[in-house]
UniProtKB/TrEMBL annotation:
PANTHER family: PHOSPHOGLUCOMUTASE, PHOSPHOHEXOMUTASE FAMILY MEMBER. InterPro entries: A-D-PHexomutase_a/b/a-I, A-D-PHexomutase_a/b/a-I/II/III, A-D-PHexomutase_a/b/a-II, A-D-PHexomutase_a/b/a-III, A-D-PHexomutase_C_sf, A-D-PHexomutase_CS, Alpha-D-phosphohexomutase_SF, PGM. This is phosphoglucomutase (alpha-D-glucose-1,6-bisphosphate-dependent). It catalyses: O-phospho-L-seryl-[protein] + alpha-D-glucose 1-phosphate = alpha-D-glucose 1,6-bisphosphate + L-seryl-[protein]; alpha-D-glucose 1-phosphate = alpha-D-glucose 6-phosphate; alpha-D-glucose 1,6-bisphosphate + L-seryl-[protein] = O-phospho-L-seryl-[protein] + alpha-D-glucose 6-phosphate. Its EC number is 5.4.2.2. Belongs to the phosphohexose mutase family. Pfam families: PGM1_C_vert_fung (PF24947), PGM_PMM_I (PF02878), PGM_PMM_II (PF02879), PGM_PMM_III (PF02880).
């Protein structure tokens, strides 16, 4: 029989979970009892529900995941947890954790990740708690965990428990007269089974493989050396028959090969170049823990996350899951371009604008009011789980393309022609001094909320924008009535164009100011404006300057749409 040992400890300052859990440098987590304190506080926040409960544990494969999995096993054993479901080798993508919590109805899960932040001993690590709905813990729970970290005096651990997680199987231990079970599970299986229920795999397979009459649709999927590698290999190579040359960086590495595992045009530039220079119809990349995605088409035609959300919203009927369960409302985070709002209006669906952070979507989904949502920060997902989901987004796009027969570019052009286009750009000012940034935001808030600002007009180039509304965004959750204030400054213009400024909640040093600019062009007006101003945008994606093509512009007035 194994014994529980109570260890005396002292609180650490600053164990406050941010938007997505406690995220710090690896070396911070390596301090004596630092990690133990936080794990014990997570469990204490669930006191009363722990006895007999099951928790899911897994992470994105970064440096320290395996060591922390071992600590979690020993501390859970010391606190009366009955069972742990752990991904083999400690690997589970964030969407897979959400899927497994829901499928096996567990009390929750502990996710070990710093998402898209670099890994390795000199970089980042993180611990996040997800609740029984599969979603990130809400503010009330994370605040409670934080309170507990400020007063913690002891943690309980079973130091002699030895439980390797390299092989799939069940291990049973006798801990202080109780049974404690650790089941090491296939990291991929439950998630893949679920994707096969949501999507029509044979249909996607035949798109990728081609037929007598149609060339194979060539994809290139980049896991950026993050946790999605095994998922991508199983889904795209084994299930969809895409071939080994259709996937890249599919071995999870502790330091992501030294790269920054964030799927965007900067950090996934290798993928962009390969698709641009090769014979590919589609490219996708995912971040370290598998919840973010980037989608590109032939010649690396870039789909902004805001457009990706709007296009999927307009075409959800092409995905079997939604054909089956129906389509409820749509939602986006406040800074995300409002392209999806136009789709919601047309389809007569409820539309929600929430603060930045995936956790704000959860209540709406649980209440059956939200089907599809997304954020400009490369997050797309649906009510199939309670996290954003990178691989799901790629499969959703392939389902749409398989059903419509259109290319990525044609899909976007058709969408813009129907709904108009919300041009979107984001500017990041990183590692700024915190105090002047806070002052700047205060001053700006004063300006935009002063009498006379609404109704005034601003100009840029040949356009004038008249201010229709301006505020510091606040949100009242329609389900539980909780209120989040100070979520970012918003200037909304009469034509739907917007300027948004907010301070990032994820930066690790100083302040990061984000400026989001969005200009709406109705389909017809967009065409005329170019002719009049001789703006010469890219002839293929209508952007000026174009970031997706080696832009061969056509003479003004003849740009085809
Ligand atoms: C994390 C969350 C996202 C959120 C993003 C915002 O990635 O998971 O839901 O959109 O942070 O980051 P920011 O740096 O803009 O606060
Ligand atoms: Zn992530």
């Amino acid at each position: 029989m194994l014994n529980i040992v109570t260890v005396n400890t002292n609180p650490y300052e600053g164990q406050k979970p941010g938007t997505s859990g406690l995220r710090k440098k690896v070396k911070v987590f390596l301090q004596d009892n630092y990690t133990e304190n936080f794990i014990q506080s997570i469990l204490d926040a669930n006191k009363g529900s722990l006895e007999g409960c099951t928790l899911v544990v897994g992470g994105d494969g970064r440096y320290l995941v395996k060591e922390v999995v071992d600590k979690i096993i020993k501390i859970c054993a010391g606190n009366g947890v009955a069972k742990l479901l752990i991904g083999q080798n400690g690997l589970l993508s964030t969407p897979a954790v959400s899927c497994i919590i829901r499928k096996y109805k567990t009390l929750g899960g502990i996710v070990l990740t710093a998402s898209h932040n670099p890994g390795g001993i000199d970089n980042d690590f993180g611990i996040k708690f997800n609740c029984s709905n599969g979603g990130p813990a809400p503010d009330a729970t994370t605040n409670h965990i934080y309170q507990l970290t400020t007063t913690i005096q002891q943690y309980k651990i079973v130091p002699d428990l030895v439980c390797p997680v390299d092989d799939i199987g069940v291990q049973t231990f006798k801990v202080a007269n109780r049974e404690f079970v650790v089941e090491v599970i296939d990291s991929v299986r439950d998630y893949v089974d679920y994707m096969k229920e949501i999507f029509d795999f044979p249909k996607i397979r035949s798109l990728l493989q081609g037929s007598e009459h149609r060339k194979p649709f060539k994809v290139l999927i980049d896991s950026m050396s993050g946790v999605t590698g095994p998922y991508v290999r199983r889904i795209f190579v084994s299930e969809l028959g895409a071939g080994e040359d259709a996937v890249r960086r599919v071995t999870p590495l502790q330091d992501f090969g030294g790269a920054h595992p964030d799927p965007n045009l900067t950090y996934a530039a290798d993928l962009v170049n390969e698709v641009k220079n090769g014979d590919y119809d589609f490219g996708a990349a995912f971040d370290g823990d598998g919840d973010r995605n980037m989608i590109i088409g032939r010649d690396a035609f870039f789909v902004t996350p805001s457009d990706s959300l709007a296009v999927l919203a307009a075409q959800l009927h092409r995905i079997p899951y939604f054909a089956r369960v129906g389509v409820r409302g749509f939602a986006r985070s406040m800074p995300t371009a409002a392209a999806v709002d136009r789709v919601a209006r047309k389809l007569g669906k409820e539309m929600f604008e929430v603060p930045t952070g995936w956790k704000y979507f959860g209540n709406l989904m649980d209440a059956g009011r939200l089907s599809l949502c997304g954020e400009e920060s490369f997050g797309t997902g649906s009510d199939h789980i309670r996290e954003k989901d990178g691989v799901w987004a790629a499969l959703a796009w392939l389902s749409v393309l398989a059903d419509s027969g259109a290319s990525v570019e044609e899909t976007l052009l058709r969408h813009w022609r129907e709904f108009g286009r919300n041009y979107f750009a984001r500017y990041d000012y990183e590692e700024c001094a915190a105090e002047p940034c806070a002052r700047m935001m205060r001053d700006l808030e004063e300006k935009i909320t002063a009498p006379g600002f609404v109704g005034s007009s601003l100009s840029s180039g040949d356009r004038r924008y008249s201010v229709q509304a301006a505020d510091n965004f606040s949100y009242k959750d329609p389900i539980d009535g909780s209120v989040a204030t100070g979520q970012g400054l918003r200037v909304v213009f009469a034509d739907g164009s917007r300027l948004v400024l907010r301070l990032s909640g994820t930066g690790s040093a100083g302040a990061t100011v984000r400026l989001y600019a969005e200009a709406y062009e109705p389909a017809e007006a967009g065409r005329r404006r170019c002719v009049v101003t001789h703006a010469m945008p890219c002839s293929r994606c209508w952007t000026s300057p174009c970031i997706s093509h080696s832009c061969i512009t056509t003479p003004a007035g003849t740009a085809p749409l």
